[in-house]
Amino acid sequence: MGTKMRVAILTNDDLTGSIVFSPLLSGSDSFEVVSVALSKSPVKGRGGAVSSVLSLAQKMSFRYWLFLLVTNGLFQFFAWRWSRTSLLPDPASFVPIRSGARKSGIPVLIVEDFNEPDLRKHLADQKVDLLLIRISAILKSGMLSVPRFGTWCVHSSLLPAYGGIAGEFHALRQGQLRIGSTVFSVTEKLDAGPPLAQVSLPVDEQRSLFHHIVSNNQRASDLLREMVEQQAGGKPPGGSLLNAGLDASYFTWPSASDVKEFRDRRGRLVELSEIADLIHAVVQPSSGLLRSRGAIRGGTSKASVE
Question: What is the pLDDT of residues 157-189, one digit of tens each?
C-alpha cells in the first residue's frame, strides 16, 4: 500500500465545524488527518469567550444571537463533558472536533490568525497534501501554496447564491424550496473559487432552521469525505453542480427585519425538543449526539423558539 494522503483541517471550534469535519478524523486506508487548527475566537481580535459573544451580539438581531448562544453554548458544554470521557470518536457520528482530534492523537493548534507564519510552517513540516477549511478569514497566497493538492472550503449554500454568512437562514427567509452546500477550490478572494461539487436537500416547512443547518452540514460532510477519498485515490475530485440558473448573492448576519421576515413565513429558529436533545447530550455525554441527530432528522414536535 502506498503512502496515505495527508490532510489538515482549519475550522472554527463550533457545532457546524464539528459536524462537517469530525467524521474525517478516523481517516481511511487512503488518507489520514495529520493536523487540526482551530480559531482562538469566533471574532478576530477578541481573545476572550465573553468578549467574543458580546461582540457578535452587536452584529445581528438579538433573536438570532440568542439562537446561536443557546445552540452553540449547549454544544460547548457537551464538548467539555465529552472531553472528560474515555470515549474515542465514532466514525458513524460527529463529535466535538477539538477533543475528538486529541483522542485520535491528531495535533490540535489554537490560532489567532489562520495566516500566521507558525501555522504555515507547521503545515509545511507536516507535508500536508490537502487543506480543508471552514473559516471566516481569507487565506493568503503563502498559506494556499502549502498543500500540493490545493485547499477546499465548505460553504453552506449553493454558490454563487447566498455567499457570505448564514446561508441556510437567508435561503429559508426568501422562501427557497431547496438549500445546499458547496465544496469549492479556495482562492485569495472570498467565496470566489470554482465550485467542485454541491449537495442539496429539500426544505421542510414543518421543521426549524436548526434542523436545516444540521441536516445541510451532515450532507456536506458526506460529500466532503467522498471527495477526499476520490482525491486520495488519484481521481479528479468533484460531483454534481446544482447551481444552474442561480444568480450570485451575498448576505451578512441577520438583522431584526430579516428575522421578522423569516418568522412571518412561520419559520422557527429552533424547536424546544431540539434544545432538550442537546441538554440530554450535556447530561449524558456518553450517549454522544446520535440521539440529537436522530431527533433532528425525525419527530414532529410543534413546540419551538421563534
Answer: 999 999 999 999 999 999 999 999 999 999 877
Q: Whole-angstrom Cα distance, residue 259 to residue 95? A: 30
What per-residue confidence (pLDDT) applies to 43? Answer: 58
> Nearest-5° angle of CA 218, CA 270, CA 72?
65
CB burial string 210-241: b at 16+ within 10 A, e below: bbbbbbbbbbbbebbbebbbbbbeeeebeeee
Q: What gap in Å lies between CA 83 and CA 86, rounded to an integer? A: 8
Stronger pLDDT, 305 or 33, i.e. the higher one: 33
Distance in angstroms (rounded) separating the CA atoms of residues 74 and 210: 13
Dump pLDDT digits (tens) for 7-24. 999 999 999 999 999 999
CA 156 to CA 6: how far, in whole Å?
25
* 85-90: Cβ within 8 A, 24+ apart: 85/285, 85/286, 87/285, 87/286, 87/288, 89/22, 89/25, 89/26, 90/288, 90/290
pTM: 0.91
> What pLDDT, on the 0 to 100 scale, is given for residue 265?
87
Q: What type of residue is 119?
A: L
CB count within 10 Å of CB 47 equals 10
Rounded mean pLDDT, 111-136 = 95
Q: Are 105 and 152 in contact (CB under 8 A)?
A: no
